[in-house]
Amino acid sequence: MLPKTYDPKAVEDAIYKRWEESGAFRPESCDPKGEPFTISMPPPNATGQLHLGHAVMLALEDIFIRFERMRGKKTLWIPGTDHAAIATENVVIKQLKDKGMKDPRKELGREKLIAAIAEFVEKSKATIRSQVRKMGSSCDWFRERYTFEPALNRCVNEVFCRMYKDGLIYRGHRIVNWDPKLQTTVSDDEVEYKEEKSAFYTFQYGPFQIATARPETKFGDKYVVMHPEDKRYAKYKHGETFDAEWINGPVRATVIKDASIDPEFGTGVMTITPWHDHTDFAIAEKHGLEKEQIIGFDGKLLPVAGEFYGMKIDDARPLIVEKLKSKGLLTKVDENYVHNKAVSQRGGGAIEPQIKLQWFIDVNKEVVPWKGETMSLKQIMHSVVHHGDIAIIPDRFEKTYFHWIDNLRDWCISRQIWWGHRVPVWYKDDETCVDPVAPKGQGWEQDTDTLDTWFSSALWTWSTLIDPKKAADPSLSLEEILKQSPDFQTFHPTSVMETGYDILFFWVARMILMTTYTTGQIPFKTVYLHGMIRTRDGKKMSKSHPETMIDPLDIIPKYGADALRLSMIVGQSPGADSRLYEEKIAGYRNFVNKLWNASRFVLMQCEEAKIDPKTITKLPKTSELSLADRAMLSKLQAVTKKVTDGLTEYRLSEAGDTLYSFVWDDFCDWYLELSKGNANCAVLTHTLRKILQLLHPYCPFVTEELWSHVKSDDAGLLISKSWPEVKKELIDVEAEEAFLQLISVIQAVRKIRSEQGIEPGKEIAAIIHTQKWMDLLESQEAHIRRLGKIENLTFETDAKPHKNAASVFLSDIEVHVPLEGLIDVVAERKKLQKEKEEIECFLQGIDAKLQNADFTAHAPEKVIAAEREKQKANVEKLRKIEQRLKMLEK
RNA sequence: GGGCAAUUAGCUCAGCUGGUUAGAGCGCCACAUUGACAUUGUGGAGGUCACAAGUUCGAAUCUUGUAUUGCCCACCA
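The joint structure predicted for all components is written out below.
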């Protein structure tokens, strides 16, 4: 016999092991003729622990996969981890520093640091693997991949070189986002803007007033820019020069007219610092102006700063202002100026724009063949979503996606860190060699930069499907490797890419870019974006506030993986943030336990009837079924359809919610209750089995465990069981309707009990006046007695009023419970009066509606018919209430 | 500055293309309790569906505007 309470801790790990050993996670175990269904798991960063974001991702993808697997598709879910270049290098460097090392990069050197990181990553991968298992993820571990493995490196190198040859990758001096703290460039998407209040200074610069928040960049300024239409400065001509006294003495400056200047802002004139500002750089490029570096890559001022040379910019700023002030050049200070400061998403330090020799991907060059046209990478990215090759759920993100593409600049892909795929370019004297493998001969030095981690992640959907052995064969081209990799041929393009909306640009867009370019295929057909999980107050969970964090690893032992999964999926709509807190998880834990006990009940009924549930293989004939049986089986068909449709259309929350209320409200609260006394074990078992099947994608552990107790002998694991089909012959609308009537009678009796304050346990009698439901109710007498706790039950067709009886009027039935002088006539009258008024008011509304010619002309017949029904039922009810009131008058 | 979303019960949220007297979970109140389940059951209280105007026979649902909140993008020297 099952224990009274479900204990997930006791069974989850063993069940997972059984699944894994059965081979059920592998596509090889599926029907070979099944249509492929593939998901590439977004690889968690190999930096440590899984968090709730991963848990959501794993739960959603596991639901997709389990559902499609049960539906007979050849499903493949590839797990993996990401080497997460900057993030991982940071973590390890920090760890080494905590151990007392001052500058790990210098002290260890490239080789040793990489070895240290690799060691850390291996440990971290092991942790992640076990955590992914804890969530119940049914992914194919034999195909686990890693973004920094040799096969991936091969792909990265091949793609890089091909893009270089196509002119899509170039090296150039361009303004980039420099992170002085991490000593590397970062891409535009890795820069965040934080609001900051700072002083805003206005200085005298020759005849002009110029405003700036960053006086420390102004040493090299020798251009003043203004709008060509600005009348205030009409007398100055473009290209004209003037002399000005400046920080370190006199300078000669040139006037530049450019329409990008906002005449309304500040004084309408500014000086520019092309080396350290994106906008200024663009102006300088346009007019062919000189550029000069002011701030070094270490964040300190260069010799151009004169006496301030070598100072950190933050320290120098007040001194520079002081100096200009003493020279009488400071004309105004606004202390409350609010502007956005660029900070590094990774390191958190200030970002300093710098001009640097870097590698870029050109997103505008139209050289890529796509569907018979030659397009730029930007255009392809736009096209595949625009033409519906790729659908984004929810679709509003398509707009965001297009907007991002429109604003996309060339992607800076080189990084000055050591952990990552190294740029496959070699230099020797003046020669440059771009090739996947190192050139032969002495003296070649490989480029010291590594690639943006998203460069390799962008290849994820297809690089994980290539055969690593083929990838190791240098004689094969990338095309040949793809052609000779059966997994790639079978499983690509993948079916669904499920990930958080926060990496739509970082990752999803880049996969589209790189995969269409490399393979000529889209990477996936559907993008499903989930929202962020927030705290109860709607705040972000952050590491800096540990009390706000919910750690899946704390939750799983306490509530079970199933409860956690449900709490993150039900009530959550795609793309929308949701809040998670323990009470919610506990609620689903209760649900899982309810299911457990319902199964226990079924098993007990079978035991009592001396029927082994494992021998039950089919349902009894319809003629042998009770009303409740037929109603239940009928309802089960509707639920099966709704859940199947919901899962097919990615409405997971709705389908989950349907199951939740079906199990709790219909199956447990009514069907099981009605089964007490005369249980039909075959129907009970059948229904429970179907429920377990339908719920399996949502809560795989508990359903698998229960399945082992109720399945038929020849059935294997639930994970490999086929998905329930809708059986039309079991749909029985009449039974469902009759069942509702039965329930309302029982509820009516309960209500009277409650309203009249009838003592608990005290048996009462009820008289039921029926019209058309007479036969039904008589046949259900035992149920009504038991569930309504009624001693005597009388059915009458003529509506003779009973004096000392409380009444409830249903549309077709009225129920009276005779009370021995207990009835409070005044209260009863008041209640009925109120009810009467309500019905009258309601009937007036319906009358008006039905009288309205426009309504009868426009409304669909179904709606009109429903209104008529309502009217009839309520008129009848009203009549009864009036009769009853008259009687009470006496 | 541009864009996207949200606003429904004390809290967290459903409510699909307009059509029963607007729902659920948690919380709250009352009652129940030996045998599936206290991780329970029954009953109940609680809502001018943010506001305003419009379209319609009919609006939580569609349109427009307003307010509040959140997010994304751009960025101003």
